[in-house]
Amino acid sequence: MAGPVAPPRLVDAARWLWIAGACIGMVRFVAQLFDREALVSEARRQNPGLGQDQVDAGVNGGILFGLLIAVVILVAYTRLANAMARGRNWARVALTVLGAASVAFGLFRLVAWGSGAAASVGVEMTPVDLGVTVVTTALDASAVVLMHRASAHFRTRVTVDSATPRT
Asked: Are 136 and 21 in contact (CB under 8 A)?
């Protein structure tokens, strides 16, 4: 019986691009979570009647929940990327859908910033946000293209002869 086969170089590169994009996105998200002053001021703006203890409890709970979600998303992307590298077509399809949505959202953010629509509705985009958006959009688009370039890796040849009993 043959041992595990290494994925093609393009598929392996796509796997690492998916993981890198997820890590960069998570780092940006975690950095935004640790901007406690912004979170407290937003909580106060949305609920001016809350006391300081209630605001602190809400912000702490939001940070903890956000960290949990960030870890879950990173683990999901990593597992999907590894399954895709092992030749699982369902993982390639799932990553294609997620990647297309990510690229579309990234392009939407860039167009909204470039046209001034984001600023007109009060959305502030820092240079770091723009840089991360450009990088993650490029990584996701590249990963989608690379994993579809090596489509033979995702085909399995199975011959089933119903006349022959299985042993």
From this structure: yes
Kindly report, residue by residue over 32-46, the tens digit of the pLDDT.
Answer: 888 888 888 888 888
Contact between 130 and 154 under an 8 Å Cβ cutoff? The reply is no
Q: How far apart are CA 100 and CA 46, in angstroms?
A: 33
What is the Cα 97 distance to its own chain's centre? 11
Task: Find the mean pLDDT for residues 132-142.
Answer: 95
- Please answer whether residues 44 and 29 qualify as being in contact, where contact means their C-beta atoms are separated by less than 8 angstroms: no
Give me the mean pLDDT over the 89-100 stretch: 94
Taking the C-alpha atoms of residue 73 and residue 67, their distance in angstroms, rounded to an integer, is 10
State the Cα–Cα distance between residues 100 and 128, nearest whole angstrom. Answer: 22
On the 0-12 / 13-18 / 19+ scale of CB atoms within 10 A, 15 is: buried
Q: Give the C-alpha distances (Å, rounded to integers) separating 90 from 54, 77, 81, 87.
A: 44, 13, 11, 9
